[in-house]
Amino acid sequence: MARPWEQCWNRLPLEAAYNVRELGGYPTTDGGSVAYHRFLRSDALSSLTEADVEFLRGYGVRLVLDLRDPDEVVAQPDVPLGDDVRIQNVPLLAFDISRKEELAKRFAVEQPTYEFFYGMILDNHEGIGRCMRLVAEAPQDVCVLFHCAVGKDRTGVLAMLLMALAGCDKWDCVANYVPTRVNLMRHEWFAAYWDDGDPAAPLNDSPAHAMEHAWDMVQEAGGIVAYLRSCGLSYEEIEAVRAHLRG
């Protein structure tokens, strides 16, 4: 029988990471469910306490996929979880997503949108393919934690792809994404940033329509298997990732 915190999809009890949650427990269209202790999505691990490290190790985390740009990694490196925990940096965007003004100039747009960013992430076939391949190669009994800076955009898109592959429907993928803003409001800097009237602050929200659009883009690409094939994965690798999700 699962302990209470194992059934908490929206926030696991860490002291210095505010957006750590399970992919486990979500129902799949064939009547099954995503396995617990296989995937955690998270914000950055740069401020973990000793208790947080102990919790994640006890949870089974042995592979960490850091989806941030290398400059972000250098500025705020993850706290090590132990010599037996592998950390892999797989950037899903080739820039620091927090620099909104710089990005607007770089891409000649007045205000970057969710659709713009999430489309760029999904277009990064090499990065998505590498993430999935690392999962396919990992032992089936380990927990994989993947994160970016706040655990919303890059992390959210990868979570959606994994859940879609497991057989979750569109609305559970959306439901997994939406709690991000609520979780992050517990963080003082995030709450202050949201309340200061900055015109870029809305991009720190996690509205349903953003993940609906990302889901629809995958369907337009032929569905999750066809999309992952376009990322260079073999059918065997795709099935290995699905097996990791289903336990």
Task: Give descriptors for this structure.
45% helix; 247 residues; alpha/beta; 5-stranded mixed sheet; Protein-Tyrosine Phosphatase, Chain A
Question: How many domains in all?
Answer: 1
Helix content: 40-55%
CATH topology: Protein-Tyrosine Phosphatase, Chain A
CATH architectural group: Alpha-Beta Complex
Overall mean pLDDT stands at 88
Q: Rg to the nearest angstrom?
A: 17 Å
Percentage of residues in strands: 5-15%
CATH superfamily: Protein tyrosine phosphatase superfamily
* Shape estimate: globular
How many helical stretches?
A: 12
Query: How many angstroms does the end-to-end distance come to?
Result: 16 Å
State the name of the first-level CATH class: Alpha Beta
Order of helices and strands: EEHEHEHHHEHHHHHHH
Strand order of the largest sheet: 1-2-5-3-4
The tally of strands reads: 5
Uncertain parts: none
> What composes the largest sheet?
5 strands, mixed
Secondary-structure map with pairings?
Blueprint: E1 21-22, E2 39-42, H1 50-59, E3 61-66, H2 70-75, E4 86-89, H3 100-106, H4 114-123, H5 125-137, E5 143-147, H6 154-166, H7 170-177, H8 180-184, H9 188-195, H10 208-220, H11 224-230, H12 235-246
Parallel strand pairs: 2-5, 3-4, 3-5
Antiparallel strand pairs: 1-2
Explain the overall architecture.
With 247 residues, the chain is an alpha/beta fold. It has one domain: Protein tyrosine phosphatase superfamily (Protein-Tyrosine Phosphatase, Chain A), CATH 3.90.190. The chain has helices spanning 50-59, 70-75, 100-106, 114-123, 125-137, 154-166, 170-177, 180-184, 188-195, 208-220, 224-230, 235-246, and strands at residues 21-22, 39-42, 61-66, 86-89, 143-147. The longest helix has 13 residues, at 125-137.
